[in-house]
TrEMBL record:
Segments forming domain ELMO: 1-121
Pfam families linked to this entry: ELMO_CED12 (PF04727)
InterPro entries hit by this protein: ELMO_dom, ELMO_domain-containing
Endpoints of the signal sequence: 1-31
Source organism, top-level taxon: Eukaryota
Protein name as catalogued: ELMO domain-containing protein 3-like
Coiled coil residues, start to end: none
Keywords assigned: Signal
Length: 148
């Protein structure tokens, strides 16, 4: 009933991450896939609340200084945190879809995702980029077929 209570743990960043995920051209296609599974008759989950959980994980990883190396190498903080958030949400999506998870599994999945992303920061970011590159390639091939 009160969206402000959902943002307590992440503040405005929780809302900004959600907007980044659905509106940024680099993540919108992934967000659409995540949203589609969140609306599945069996595998559904609350998309916005799950996004806030992914922001909470990203903040936790940032506070534990696990993103420092990546931030320092790229001389960026917000971009790295945003990409890590999106990669974390993507990892959740892959897990949810592959193992046919349902709302009942939420706590276990979030715990497993948290444990994985903390140990694989660079992989989480890289996997998301690789998926985005594959999606762009598919779109380009489809455009060639349609226009060709």
């Amino acid at each position: 009933n009160d969206p402000a209570t959902d943002l307590r743990g992440t503040g405005l960043l929780g809302l900004l991450h959600l907007l980044y995920f659905i509106l940024d051209s680099s993540t919108a296609a992934t967000a659409k896939k995540v949203y589609q599974i969140s609306q599945d008759e069996i595998q559904n989950f609350p998309f916005c609340l799950m996004s806030i959980s992914m922001t909470r994980i990203a903040l936790e990883v940032l506070r534990e200084e696990l993103l420092n190396k990546e931030c320092n190498q790229r001389n960026q903080v917000m971009l790295v945190v945003n990409e890590f958030y999106a990669g974390t949400f993507f990892h959740l999506y892959q897990t949810w879809k592959k193992y046919h998870k349902t709302i009942i599994d939420t706590g276990y999945v979030i715990k497993a995702v948290t444990d994985y992303v903390k140990k694989n920061v660079k992989t989480v970011i890289q996997s998301m980029k690789e998926f985005q590159d594959q999606e762009e390639t598919k779109s380009g091939v489809m455009a060639l077929h349609i226009n060709g």
